[in-house]
């Protein structure tokens, strides 16, 4: 369908920016609510599932080179069951994108511009993203490359600037309520990392899939590293008790930086989340429209961009009553649901594909 | 193509035409400081806003304050602020809030209900200073001072610049208040600020003393040198001046010592039911002043000076703790430290503050007199040598 090709690194950069942003904006409070001052242990433990996710996605794409998730699901599971699984994945992507748009809008309306209707932000970011998707994958990945160059220094900069207020004694006592809460936190982090499965729609367009597994595992480790600063920082600054129950703790820490004349750096956070949300929304929107087009064997995905974009903005409005509802969902249901769809299902696919031999695959194609 | 360009233009006009939530400078009143008092019907809030400068040709009357303090009452903080907005022709703008002052009655009632709005509001900064005044906050904000135009700003500067000027101030910001109040095993202490009369009329403010809280309610004040205890324990005593008795000198002959490097480490140890708090203090500083005519830099004399400093630190740690214990307040956060190092024991005793009776201090001080300004022997010594 598309002839453009991107490099491995561009594809993985898309994954990094899309996960980092939702994570930093919406997910830090969820992890801290679960694990409290032991969230750094959760992060350490989350390395293993994270690597597993990266490995699964890359291996599936390598096993079916040039085929996207939609195509290989149908190859592995047969036409009808495969289509059902594809629909589950597409709904998952749709939900994921609507959650992150909602989070982005809620962040603006509660922390930056309270009198602006939330739909303005949905529409603004969706118009941008839809335009990027309309222009194609290469545009998305190149834009994202430029954005990530700004994003990563901001994260590092913020970590360094908040160093002054941090008291690492706040991490004591370690594992006060035994390991349970930390494991809850790990599950939450795993569910967050699971959404990297969206890359299965991108990998077919990677020009060279050699050593893709290694690259993707390194990406997951980078993702884990990107979360060290915000997770430990919030607990070290506010202490466990206060860190629980803040809506946007990372934004608060950024906002309260005061080093001489260097203060009021909220704009850094707003920049970080606006740019990153754009990258995430564009990537997921692309994955959804491409997936629908492939599922229904359409010639061009471009006609789908505007209807799906409109659908996303409506779903974002109705998928939670308020910010609190979104957080309750992210805290209580999302970990199980996202881990199941993003990690367990792909793993099952991988295991089933192990038993199906490649020649069989070819036969099926010939049919 | 032309249609596309027109469409793009329309979109750009919609999205680039300025800010939705704009606040014009001539429509807002910038609040610099806020005082919260308790009255019968609820809260009484005094907001100090900056007056817009008068027209340029207008005569600038020097004595007039460039600020306006507006006061209203209400049942909750936000409700009171709504009532304030009824009085103020311009919308109150809170992003530049420097200081929040609690009146004595308000603080005794409990300050936590009054801080909720400040924590939640998106405009207010967590960097605002929190202080207590023994009188009412309204009077404090309305007092006319000599140095500085805006009283709230002068107060904030008085506390902010405390380290540079070598005085003791706790410098508690809204962010610290939030985390201290929510952490079990540590109680809040705040700076005490009050109007100061010089030559019969109020001319400035004074930062002196510590307000001790228990569960967010004011219990009492501590004045005098003991107030340094909290700062010693929090490793924040840098650049403070310590006075001590001159060795071999008369009763009122003293030396003054400025700390240039200060560090303290606190770790509680458990032995049965006694809690021994190990405090390791290392400090360095300059001997800048003395009223006695002995060369205090001689090795044997400087040992005595260091001993005097050790005595000062021990006395103040234990002194402030003793006073705060009578108010049932764990101002040093010993409970918090216990929880960090002995969580099992803390789980047993955390219901009451009775554990404070079992606390003993084991204080080790390592002090070093590094320099003595620009001269070695004082002129005072020289004159003595000549007269002998």
From TrEMBL, chain A:
Keywords: Germination, Membrane, Transmembrane, Transmembrane helix, Transport. Gene3D superfamilies: Amino acid/polyamine transporter I. InterPro entries: Spore_GerAB. It comes from the Bacteria. It is a multi-pass membrane protein. Its main location: membrane. NCBIfam families: 2A0309 (TIGR00912). Belongs to the amino acid-polyamine-organocation (APC) superfamily. Spore germination protein (SGP) (TC 2.A.3.9) family. This is Endospore germination permease. It comes from Ureibacillus galli.
Automatic annotation (TrEMBL), chain B:
It comes from the Bacteria. InterPro entries: GerAC_N, Spore_GerAC-like, Spore_GerAC-like_C, Spore_GerAC_C_sf. It is a lipid-anchor. Residues 208-373 form the Spore germination GerAC-like C-terminal domain. Keywords: Germination, Lipoprotein, Membrane, Palmitate, Signal. Residues 21-194 form the Spore germination protein N-terminal domain. It is found in: Membrane. Pfam families: Spore_GerAC, Spore_GerAC_N. Belongs to the GerABKC lipoprotein family. This is Ger(X)C family spore germination protein.
């Amino acid at each position: 369908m598309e002839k453009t090709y991107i490099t491995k690194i561009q594809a993985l950069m898309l994954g990094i920016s899309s996960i980092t942003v939702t994570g930093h904006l919406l997910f830090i409070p969820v992890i801290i609510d679960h694990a409290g001052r032991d969230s750094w242990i959760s992060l350490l433990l989350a390395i293993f599932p994270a690597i597993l996710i990266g490995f699964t996605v890359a291996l599936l794409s390598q096993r079916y080179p040039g085929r996207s998730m939609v195509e290989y699901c149908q190859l592995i599971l047969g036409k009808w069951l495969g289509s059902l699984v594809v629909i589950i994945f597409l709904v998952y992507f749709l939900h994921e994108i609507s959650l992150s748009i909602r989070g982005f809008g809620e962040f603006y309306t509660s922390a930056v511009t309270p009198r602006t209707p939330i739909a303005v932000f949905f529409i603004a970011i969706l118009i941008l993203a839809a335009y990027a998707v309309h222009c194609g994958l290469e545009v998305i990945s190149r834009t994202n490359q430029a954005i990530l160059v700004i994003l990563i220094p901001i994260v590092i900069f913020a970590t360094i600037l908040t160093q002054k207020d941090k008291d690492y004694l706040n991490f004591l006592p370690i594992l006060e309520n035994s390991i349970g809460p930390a494991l809850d936190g790990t599950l939450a982090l795993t569910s967050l990392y699971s959404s990297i499965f969206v890359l299965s729609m991108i990998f077919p367009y990677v020009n060279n899939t050699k050593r893709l597994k290694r690259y993707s595992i390194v990406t997951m480790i980078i993702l884990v590293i990107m979360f060290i600063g915000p997770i430990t920082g919030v607990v070290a600054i506010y202490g466990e008790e206060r860190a629980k129950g803040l809506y946007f703790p990372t934004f608060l820490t950024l906002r309260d930086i005061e080093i001489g004349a260097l203060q009021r750096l909220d704009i850094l956070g707003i920049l970080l989340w606006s740019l990153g949300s754009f990258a995430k929304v564009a990537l997921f929107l692309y994955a959804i429209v491409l997936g629908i087009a492939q599922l229904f064997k359409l010639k061009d995905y471009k006609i789908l961009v505007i209807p799906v974009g409109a659908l996303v903005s409506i779903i974002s409005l109705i998928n939670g009553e308020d910010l609190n509802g979104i957080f309750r969902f992210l805290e209580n249901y999302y970990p199980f649901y996202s881990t199941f769809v993003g990690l367990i299902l792909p793993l099952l696919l991988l295991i089933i594909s192990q038993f199906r031999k490649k020649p069989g695959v070819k036969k099926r194609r010939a049919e | 193509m032309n249609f596309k360009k027109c469409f793009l233009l329309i979109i750009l006009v919609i999205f680039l035409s300025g800010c939705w939530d704009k606040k014009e400078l001539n429509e807002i009143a910038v609040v610099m400081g806020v005082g919260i008092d308790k009255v019968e019907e609820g809260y009484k809030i005094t907001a100090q806003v900056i007056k817009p400068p008068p027209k340029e040709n207008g005569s600038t009357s020097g004595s007039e304050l460039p600020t306006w303090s507006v006061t209203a009452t209400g049942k909750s903080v936000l409700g009171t602020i709504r009532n304030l907005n009824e009085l103020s022709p311009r919308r109150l703008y809170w992003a530049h809030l420097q200081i929040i002052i609690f009146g004595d009655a308000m603080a005794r009632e409990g300050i936590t209900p009054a801080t909720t709005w400040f924590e939640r509001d998106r405009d207010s900064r967590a960097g605002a200073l929190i202080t207590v005044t023994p009188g009412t906050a309204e009077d404090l904000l309305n007092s006319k001072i000599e140095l500085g135009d805006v009283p709230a700003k002068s107060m904030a500067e008085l506390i902010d610049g405390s380290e540079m000027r070598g005085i003791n101030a706790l410098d508690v910001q809204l962010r610290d208040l939030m985390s201290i109040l929510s952490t079990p095993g540590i109680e809040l202490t705040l700076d005490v600020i009050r109007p100061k009369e010089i030559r019969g009329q109020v001319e400035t403010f004074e930062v002196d003393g510590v307000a001790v809280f228990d569960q967010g309610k004011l219990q009492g004040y501590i004045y005098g040198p003991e107030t340094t205890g909290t700062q010693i324990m929090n490793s924040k005593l840098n650049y403070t001046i310590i006075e001590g008795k001159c060795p071999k000198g008369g009763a009122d002959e003293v030396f003054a010592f400025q700390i240039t490097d200060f560090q303290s480490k606190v770790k509680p140890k458990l032995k049965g039911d006694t809690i021994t708090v190990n405090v390791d203090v290392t400090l360095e500083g300059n001997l800048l002043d003395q009223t006695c005519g002995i060369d205090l830099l001689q090795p044997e004399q400087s040992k005595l000076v260091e001993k005097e400093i050790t005595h000062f630190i021990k006395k103040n740690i234990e002194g402030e703790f003793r006073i705060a214990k009578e108010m049932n307040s764990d101002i040093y956060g010993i409970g918090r430290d216990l929880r960090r190092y002995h969580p099992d024991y803390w789980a047993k005793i955390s219901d009451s503050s009775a554990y404070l009776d079992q606390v003993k201090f084991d204080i080790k001080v390592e002090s070093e007199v590094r320099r003595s300004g620009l001269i070695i022997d004082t002129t005072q010594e020289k004159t003595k040598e000549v007269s002998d």
